[in-house]
Design brief:
Blueprint (H helix, E strand, L loop, with lengths): L23 E4 L4 E4 L2 E2 H4 L5 H10 L5 H21 L12 H10 L8 H23 L13 H10 L5 H14 L6 H11 L4 H12 L8 H11 L5 H10 L17 H15 L6 H19 L9 H11 L7 H23 L22
Antiparallel strand pairs: 1-2, 2-3
Helix pairs in contact: 2-3, 2-15, 3-5, 4-5, 4-9, 5-6, 5-15, 6-7, 7-12, 7-14, 7-15, 8-9, 8-15, 9-15, 10-14, 11-13, 12-14
This protein binds coenzyme A.
Coenzyme A (COA) binds next to helix 14.
């Protein structure tokens, strides 16, 4: 970890380098996301989630037989996770999807000594547990996985309780690949800190879920959809947003710690929604979202002329996941079902580093009278 002096302006650890990684790079000025040697635009919409997992875990895109290997292994992992559900108590009956995922994942233990094997188990499990929670929420029995299907298709089939359209599967694949890794974001740091203590991969992934749950990180897409539903007509966007800002509230899906331009993932997802729209699957929310984004950008520019607050990945996540039939309550857990692949990859990387992450703090509490205060 590079040295930095703690001052009020650095309490968010902006700019502090905590790891060297081959996994991903975020360039906030240029609006670029590189994932293991490829731009997000080269991967999302072009390779399956399984291929991108292999890239993160093994460092290169798979050849056809490796792709088949990871596809089958993920299918088996989904089956194992489904068989474990009866041992998870009420974990899948919780009201909140992230609380459910946190509780359900915490029931797992690592048995496979191979770290990529563990990554496969956890990534398979996240999909099954998210879908199982959704079925319970509708008072229906969880759907058993079909290991013959691709991961995105099976996730969506289990979540919806019916076979999804190929376009919806393509959109979910694009989404999962888009969000699987993103530099040293808060949940990835949380997972790496746990990994650095020598703890197990399940614990690191649970820590990632806990951090992702917060509305400033992965909890934004649900509120984005609520915002779009509440605005309802493009002509109402400006006055609605003005009221929110006047009330001192943040516009969800706008702004980013790193990006000073539009988040490149927003564009990738917007294009995926356009493809859905051309196939007659996206609803009218795309046009509404575009208007809301334009108006929000304009108002935030007026309010914070020195700080470019543009759309982030969560903005179009809401529109895409809604269009493929997922309810807003499932948005954050679906984010986790993609990001889990990144957390596991970071676990593997941090494990190889083998050094405890243990930063410093600056004491500002009362000083004992018995001690002389150092100069
Ligand atoms: N709506 C309104 N105001 C916002 C804003 C938003 N979405 N994002 C930032 N601001 C304001 C802040 O309140 C701050 O104002 P102040 O200086 O008057 O206090 C100013 O812009 C600068 O904030 P900044 O330092 O850029 O924020 P950050 O780096 O601490 O936070 C986020 C980044 C993502 C947490 C923040 O932009 C946010 O809360 N966005 C909404 C939630 C969201 O979409 N999260 C998903 C992130 S991928």
């Amino acid at each position: 970890m590079s040295a930095s002096k703690a001052t009020p302006s650095t309490t968010g650890l902006e700019g502090v380098v905590v790891a060297e990684t081959r996994l991903s790079e975020v360039d906030g000025q240029r609006g670029q996301l590189i994932v293991s040697g490829y731009t997000v635009e080269e991967l999302a919409g072009h390779v399956s989630f399984e291929s991108a997992c292999w890239l993160l875990w093994r460092g290169e895109l798979p050849d056809p037989s490796q792709l088949e290997e990871v596809r089958r292994a993920l299918g088996k992992a989904r089956e194992r996770a489904f068989q474990a559900i009866p041992r998870m108590g009420d974990a899948l009956r919780m009201g909140d999807g992230m609380e459910s995922l946190r509780a359900a994942l915490a029931h797992l233990t690592v048995s496979n000594p191979d770290l990529v094997g563990q990554s496969i188990d956890l990534t398979g499990a996240a999909a099954v547990l998210l879908a199982g929670w959704l079925r319970h929420r509708l008072e229906q029995t969880p759907e058993a996985p079909n290991p013959e299907l691709g991961h995105a298709e099976d996730l969506l089939r289990m979540a919806l309780g019916r076979p999804p359209s190929p376009r919806a599967v393509e959109a979910l694949n694009t989404y999962l690949v888009t969000v699987m890794d993103h530099g040293m974001n808060a949940s990835t740091l949380a997972a790496r800190v746990v990994a650095s203590t020598g703890s197990d991969m399940v614990s690191a992934v649970v820590a990632g879920v806990c951090a992702l749950k917060g509305p400033l990180h992965g909890g934004a897409p649900g509120p984005v959809l609520e915002m779009l539903q509440s605005i309802d007509y493009p002509s109402r966007a400006r006055s609605w947003l003005e009221r929110e800002l006047a009330a001192g509230r943040r516009i969800m899906g706008m702004g980013h710690r790193i990006y000073r331009v539009r988040d490149p993932r927003a564009a990738v997802l917007e294009q995926a929604i356009e493809r859905l729209a051309r196939a007659g699957l996206a609803n009218e929310k795309l046009e509404l979202a575009r208007t809301v984004e334009r108006e929000a950008e304009r108002l935030l520019q007026e309010k914070h002329p020195d700080r470019a607050l543009r759309a982030n990945v969560e903005f179009y996540t809401a529109v895409l996941l809604d269009a493929i039939g997922l309810p807003s309550a499932a948005f954050s857990p679906t984010f986790a079902a993609g990001r889990v692949a990144g957390w596991c990859a970071h676990y593997i990387e941090q494990h190889a580093v083998g050094r405890l992450i243990r930063p410093a703090s600056r004491y500002v509490g009362p000083w004992p009278k018995s001690l002389e205060r150092p100069k």
